[in-house]
Amino acid sequence: MNLAKEAMDWLDRRLGVSDLIHSNMGGYLLPRNINIWYTLGAVLMAMFGLQFLTGIVLLVYYVPHTEKAFASVTMIMNEVPYGWLLRYLHVVGSNLIMVFLLLHLLSVLFMGSYKRPRELTWLSGFGLLNLGFAFCLTGYLLPWSQLSFWATTVATDAAGAIPVVGDYLVAFLRGGPSVGEATLGRFFALHVMGLPMAFLGLVGFHLFCVRRIGISSPPFGEDYQPTALTQHFHHEEHPGGVPFHPNYTIKDLSMVFFALAALVAITFYAPWLFIPLDALDPADPFTTPEHIKPEWYFLWAYQTLKIFPSELLGLASQGAAMGFLAILPFLDRSPERRPGKRPIFVALYLLGILLFVGLSIWGHYS
Amino acid sequence: MKILHSLYGLIVLILFSLLLTGSLAVAAEETVCIQCHGGLDGHLGEPVAQWRTSVHAANGISCHDCHGGDPTDFEMAMSPERGFIGVPEYAGVPDFCGRCHVGVKEDYLASAHGQALEVGGPNCVTCHENHAIQLASIDLINENTCSMCHDYERAARVKNEISSTEASLTKLEASVAALHRVGIDTQRLKEELFASRNAFRRLFHTVNIEKIKSQTAQFDQDLSETKATISDYENRLGQRKLIGGVFVALLVLGGIVALLIRRTYQNKE
Asked: Nearest-5° angle of CA A172, CA A174, CA A175?
C-alpha cells in the first residue's frame, strides 16, 4: 500500500482528518457570487509568510547594536549570497502588505462585512492593521541609518505631547533620554518577537472568527437580501454555494501569484521606491538631515499633526479617527449592507479616502 | 473587557503618536555667529546668506571652522583667546584655506599664481569666491575670470588638457552615486575617486601645462581600473534585472494559468 495513504489512514482513524479536511475544504461552501476582494486575506497571509521567512534569514546576519547594525545591513546587501534579495523582498514586502491591508479594510467597509455579527472579526482585523503599522515602525529603526535614527527621534518625541505621562512615555519608549542602544534593543525585541507573537495570536483569532461565523455574502445582485439578525449564535451557511477547495483556493492562488509578481518586479526593478536617500547613510546623532519624511502610509498622520495648532490636538484627532474606525460595527447597527442603499455611508467612505489621499500628497510635498 | 479595549486604544494612540511621523526636520542648532550676523545688514550680514548657499554649508563647515572663535558664547565668540582669527590679509588667504586644503595649497604656492601672490597675483577667492563657495568645477576656468589678470590662451590650454579626465571623473562619480542608490557598498570606490579627484585638482593648480600633460595619462590609467570595477557592478545589476524579469513572467504566467483553471470550475458550477 502507498505509504502516504497508509499514514493518512492512520491519522484519519485517530483524529478524523478526512472529515476535518472535507468540512473545511471541499465541503466548505462559499457564496456563489463571491468576488476577487475576498482573495486579499490569502494574499496577505502569503505576504506575511514571506516576511517571516525573509525576516528569519535576515536575523542570522543582522546585529542589533548601534555600532554594528548599519554595517551588518551593508554586509547583508553586499556580501551575503542573495542578501540583497532577501532584504529588498522584506522592505518592499512590508510596503505592499500595507497596500493590501488598506485595500482589505476598504473592501470590508464598502461591502459592510464588518457589521453584526462580525464585530470581533472586524476588531481583530483592525488590530492586525495596527500591528502592521507597528511592524513597520519598529523595523524602520533597525538598519540604524540617518533616516532610522531621526525618524524615530521625531516620532518618539511626539509622544511627549500627551499630557501628564508624555515625558515618561518618551523615556519609556526610548529607554533613556534620547534614541540610542536601549531604543534599538527595545524595537528589535518587539519587531522579531513581541509583535510576531501578537500577530500569530490575533491572526489565529481572526481566521477562527471568519470560519466560525461563516463568510459574508457580497451585498450585490438581485438575489441578495440582508441577513436577519438573531439573538443566538448563527453560522452563516451558503447552500448551493461553490466549494472553498479547489474552486476558490485556485482563485486565491492566482491572486497570490499576481501579488508576488508585483513584489518581485519592484524588488528587482525599483526597490529605491521605498528607500529614501537618508536611509543609505549610517546614523549620525550630531548631523540632522534636512528633511525627514515618514513612509507613505504615515504621511496622512504626519500632515494632520502639522495642520493642528498644537501637537496634542493633532494626536487627539488621529486617536479619535482610529477609535471611530475601531468601534464602527457598534455604531453602525443597521443590517443593510448594499452600498446603493447606504448613500450617507458611501459618501463618507469616499470622503475618507479622498482625505487620506489628499493629506498624504500634501504631507509628501509640504 | 472594557479595560482591555481602553488599554488597546491607548496603545494605538501611543503607536500613532510615534508614527506621527518623522518630519519636522529638527532644525540644526545655529551658532552664535549665525544668530548675530544673520540679523545684520550690509557686509556684516551678507556672508551668512552667501554661506547658506555654499558647499561648505552643505557639508557642515560653519563660520568658526574657518574664522575660529567660540560658536557657543556670544561674549567670547570673537575673542582671540578662543582662537578667533577674523578676516585674513589678502596674501594670507592661501594659508587660511590651506589649513584644510593642504595639497592644493602646496601646488598652488609652487605655481605661477602662487609665486605672484605677493605682487597681487590671484589667491583662492579670486576664482572660488569666499562665503558663496560652490563645488569646484572645470567651468571655474573661463575667459571672464582668467582675463581679469592675463590672456586666456594659456588657461584655455590647461582647460583643454584636463577636460577629458575631468569629464571621466564626473561621470564615474555619477555612476558610483547610482550604484550607492541601489544599495551597493561604494565606500571604497568613493574613497578611490575622492583621492583621484584631490590629486587631480592639485595637479592643475600647478598651471604647468607640461606637468599636467605628462601626469594626466597616469590619472586616466588609474581611472580605467575604477571604471572596470563600476562596469562589473553595472553588469551584475543588469543580470539581476534579467533574472527578475524571468521570475516576474513566471509568476504572471502562474497567475494566468490558475485563473484559467478557475474558469474550468466555473463552467461546471
From this structure: 65
What is the rounded distance in angstroms from the CA atom of residue B154 to the CA atom of residue B244? 53
Q: Does the residue B199 lie in any domain? A: yes
Work out the mean pLDDT of chain B and round it to a whole number. Answer: 87
Q: Across all residues in chain A, what is the average pLDDT?
A: 94
- Beta-carbon separation of B252 and A151 below 8 A: no
A253 touches chain B (CB under 8 A): yes
Give domain status of residue B185, yes or no: yes
User: Is A88 in contact with B181 (CB distance < 8 Å)?
Assistant: no
Question: Each residue of A172-219: pLDDT tens digit?
Answer: 999 999 999 999 999 999 999 999 999 999 999 999 999 999 999 999
- B264 inside domain: no
Which of A94, A153, A247, A310 is best to mutate for the B interface (most B CBs within 10 A)?
A: A247
Report angle CA B54, B55, B59 to the nearest 5 degrees.
Answer: 120
Integer-rounded Cα radius of gyration of chain B:
29
Shortest CA gap B193–chain A (Å): 18
The DSSP symbol for A30 reads E
Q: Is the peptide bond before A117 cis (omega within 30 degrees of 0)?
A: yes
As a whole number of angstroms, the distance between CA A123 and CA A121 comes to 6
DSSP annotation of A243 reads: E
Which residues on chain A are in Cβ contact (under 8 Å) with B27?
288
E-assigned strand segments in chain B: none
Element (H, E) at A270: none
Shortest alpha-carbon distance between residue A15 and chain B (Å): 31
Taking only the tens place, the pLDDT of each residue in A74-93 is 999 999 999 999 999 999 99
Distance, in Å, from the CA atom of B179 to the CA atom of B173, rounded to the nearest integer, reads 10
A-proximal residues of B, 162-201, CB under 8 Å: 180-185
Judged by CB atoms closer than 8 Å, whether chains meet at B182 and A291 is answered as no
C-alpha A347/C-alpha A291 separation (Å) is: 36
Distance CA A178, CA B119 (A): 56
Report, in angstroms and rounded to the nearest whole number, the Rg of chain A calculated over CA atoms. 23
Q: What is the distance in angstroms between the Cα of A109 and the nearest Cα belonging to chain B?
A: 20
Q: Are B81 and B63 in contact (CB under 8 A)?
A: no
User: Complex ipTM, two decimals?
Assistant: 0.93
Q: How far is CA B176 from CA A143, A292, B228, in A?
A: 21, 24, 12
- Ordered by where they begin, the domains of chain A are 36-221+239-289 (1.20.810.10)
Interface with chain A: mutation pick from B4, B6, B18, highest number of A CBs within 10 Å: B18
The C-alpha atoms of residue A131 and residue A195 are separated, in whole angstroms, by 7
Alpha carbon B252 to its chain's center:
42
Q: To the nearest whole percent, how much of chain A has pLDDT over 90?
A: 88
Tell if the CB–CB gap between A318 and B182 is shorter than 8 Å. no
- Cβ–Cβ gap A315/B17 under 8 Å: yes
Query: What pTM was estimated for this model as a whole?
Result: 0.85
Number of separate domains in chain B: 1
User: Has residue B151 been placed in a domain?
Assistant: yes
Angle ∠(A361,A363,A364) on CA atoms, nearest 5? 65
Q: Domain span at residue B247?
A: 147-256
Q: Among partner residues A127, A161, A242, which is closest to B269 by beta-carbon distance?
A: A242
